Amino acid sequence: MSFNIKPKYDKKIKKSDLVKLFWRSIPYEHSWNYERMGNVGFTWAIMPILKKLYPQKDKFIHALKRNLELYNMTPYIVTLPLGISVAMEEANANNEDFDETSISAVKLALMGPLSGIGDSFFWGTLRVLATGIGTTLALKGSILGPILFFLVFNVPHYIIRYYGTFLGYSLGSNVINNVENSGMMDKITKYASMIGMMVVGAMTQEMVSVNFITKIGVGKSASTVQSLLDGIFPGIATLALFGVTYWMLKKKLNPLLIMFIILVVSIAAAYFKILGA
């Protein structure tokens, strides 16, 4: 893997920093949470690099807050966006005119497409292959079953995770240089933000479920409120919940309090047979 990149500024990030980034990416999902998913793991992985790039305490804290936004990524390829992010952070640290909002925009834009590829390969293909090999031998009483399952899944995983760190950094550095030379940073930020918002919207629709089970009508002609809503505007209940949640966030309510409110309302609605599975 080539590490010879010729940027317009002196590099602060060394190969040793990226190797440390690789190791710190391994517990990425250990701090996964329902509020912002993998944000803590992502930020913890790049924290030493951020401290190196931003020796001033206020800038370092600002960079930490910027990276603590919602983020979710297949853990086995998370080093690719990590590498791209640190390359952009390095450009931001060396250029006062750099648009730091582009860092978040690019991160969000990559979240959906990369996770789709990662989930399909690791969960849908490699894990199935490893399970098939491992269980076949395990059913015959061979100790090689669990050993081969572990190796078939994890050897490709760690190879991809390791080289993905350097690939992401290289891609990020080269793209930034080309973009800065062409003056297209504003357009890149705008389109990446649009894609990022589309990804977040798709995640909301996929991961949030609202089902009104109250029936209208009698006998066989009775229909649930949910079926009527879906007939008018599929997903409108989820959209409404998203709107209410966004409104509460704009009112500066604590996210944990918002989650508690949703929990209490959901339990009450289920008890009175308004909502159901």
TrEMBL record:
Q: Would the keyword Transmembrane helix be found if you checked this record's keyword annotation?
A: yes
Q: Which InterPro entries match?
A: GatZ_KbaZ_carbometab, PTS_IID_man
Concerning Pfam families, the annotation shows: EIID-AGA
Q: Where are the transmembrane segments?
A: 128-153, 191-212, 232-249, 256-274
The protein's UniProt keywords, in alphabetical order, are: Membrane, Transmembrane, Transmembrane helix
**Keyword Transmembrane helix among record annotations:** yes
By what name is this protein known?
A: PTS mannose transporter subunit IID
Please name the source species.
Lactobacillus kullabergensis
